Amino acid sequence: MARHLITSAIPYINGVKHLGNLVGSQLPADLYARYLRGRGHEVLFLCATDEHGTPAELAAAKAGEPVADYCARMHGVQADLAQGFRLSFDHFGRSSSDQNRHLTQHLAVKLHEAGLIEERTERQVYSVADGRFLPDRYIEGTCPNCGYEKARGDQCENCTKQLDPTDLINPRSAISGSTELEVRETKHLYLLQSTLRDRLAAWIDEQADWPVLTTSIAKKWLFDGDGLQDRGITRDLDWGIPVQFEGAPWSGMEGKVFYVWFDAPIEYIACAAEWAAAQGKPDADWERWWRTGRGAADVRYTQFMGKDNVPFHTLSFPATLIGSGEDWKLVDYIKSFNYLNYDGGQFSTSQGRGVFMDDALELLPADYWRWWLLSRAPENQDSEFTWESFQGGVNKDLADVLGNFVSRVTKFCRSRFGEAVPEGGAWGDRERQLIADLSAGLARYEAAMESIAIRRAAQELRALWVLGNEYLQEAAPWAAYKEDPDRAAAIIRLALNLIAVYAELSAPFIPDAADTLRAAMKSKTGWPADMHAALRALPPGHAFTVPEMLFRKITDEERDAWQARFAGGRG
RNA sequence: GGGCCUGUAGCUCAAUUGGUUAGAGCAGAGCGCUCAUAACGCUUUGGUUGGGGGUUCGAGUCCCUCCGGGCCUACCA
Description:
Keywords: Aminoacyl-tRNA synthetase, ATP-binding, Cytoplasm, Ligase, Metal-binding, Nucleotide-binding, Protein biosynthesis, Zinc. It is found in: Cytoplasm. This protein is α/β, with parallel strands linked by helices. It has 3 domains: 3-114 and 195-223 and 259-337, Rossmann fold; 117-191, Methionyl-trna Synthetase, domain 2, CATH 2.170.220; 400-543, Isoleucyl-tRNA Synthetase, Domain 1, CATH 1.10.730.10. The protein has helices at residues 19-38, 54-63, 67-84, 98-113, 197-206, 212-223, 260-279, 283-290, 310-323, 357-363, 366-375, 387-416, 429-450, 454-475, 477-483, 485-506, 511-521, 531-534, 556-565; strands at residues 3-8, 42-49, 91-94, 117-127, 132-133, 139-142, 151-152, 169-173, 181-191, 231-232, 234-235, 257-258, 299-306, 333-337, 340-342, 383-385. The protein has a 5-stranded parallel sheet with strand order 3-2-1-13-14, with helices on both faces. A 4-stranded antiparallel sheet has the order 5-4-9-10. The mean pLDDT is 91. It binds one RNA strand through helix 2, helix 6, strand 10, helix 7 and helix 9.
């Protein structure tokens, strides 16, 4: 038994996330957490909402709410959806928590003490009408390169040229449209990441087993051009963690907050503290997950995220932890994902294109989505959601292969022997062969899960389901029953037990269906470490019930209607 | 512009890191079964591995080049 700390990239607060966001971090993290728990490991699985930054302020303003209220409300919305998808977080925290404020300020002080913080004065665009400094991308204007009129201050989306806000012709605020812009001086704290470059590079080099996607992005940032750049870790915003606080080793930072990418990863730690507080546990209980000197030395820490998050998790956050000089646990494995596209294009929050988490649950239960998304997780390249593929995957894998297996076995038993595991008969060669095949398949499934090869794991799980159908076809209990009811009883006894085994094995992917099966079979057998024993767990006479249809099929009419509904123009 | 990834059967993806005849699932075709959600099982069609060149006893895999797709490029998060 090992100890596993698992974090999912924390979703940003400004709205309901789409299926691409879900499959890129929270869902695979949940799969892994559930698997490890199923294997008896001690797991702490954390996620939170990322609540600071300009977009949160703007979204709140648009909603006509104070930003704190908006965030609290949206946290509730996201927490409900997480629950709806059966994301089994031990705690779903908030980056705006007291714990994160304390910890973020603490780490900033430690970095300062280590000589890794520098104050720099820079010039930023200030919008008088908006009463705020504007991030580059919130300034719009005409591109000096191609004449595109809605170029952003950081880059022109039309000609892809990188820009400086002052390059724009007729610049205006993207928030209010105001052209009353001035360049003002402002002071910010910089994290001197560049001085940690060699240590970070050495640390990345140790990670031989990380996905190429992860290490290649890290190395690009480490070595490209002038190498790793220092990073501004404060911003001129109202909403966030105050930079000026009691005991702060700098001055004149009133009205500024830490940059959200500085405080968001720290929330991984703070979330553990929130978890402990919520459970009424002492600090030592969360510190044993995060402080190597206080028990975390034997923890294996795995992070899940989309590829856009990789630089912050491979470089910025480790720089914060290493630079602090304290004994913080560093990540052991980063599982990063490509993007899920939607039906020939990208998911688009602004255009309402694609399926969002709330939409999805309105259409079908979580398991349907979990299975399709995980079995096609964009591990090696961007992948695509199409309604046809979704319908095909759900109907074939869940309804036909697994659901129908459960149905045919339980209904056959009910009609011939009643709703209890039948007695009589014995296993023969075919049963021994099945057990050998199941054991071999289980080993492959476990290996895939251990290495977080999600598509492969789904494939292997499905293959285990198929073995049940193959066996039933060959053993043909309906034929055996006519001449040798005991033989049929032995077959069905095994098949009923196999359903209980499937419940355990499938639980990480489809937890609700697994619970339905456990309830129907009245089983709580746990992970089938020994297949031979597991298939005898439900003894003759053990009562069960025939479950309701485990998975229904998606009709062509539904598929077409949904495809039309989510093509764009949400709401 | 620079960097990275990628192109394999109609579709979605594999291929133990250079090693027999490139494999699965879906879709298609045929057969079987009748317990079951018209489900299941068996068999089967289908590939000049994007094009071209090279290295090698041997290339889907390595190199060059061309063509196509995608991502990142540090002030959105």
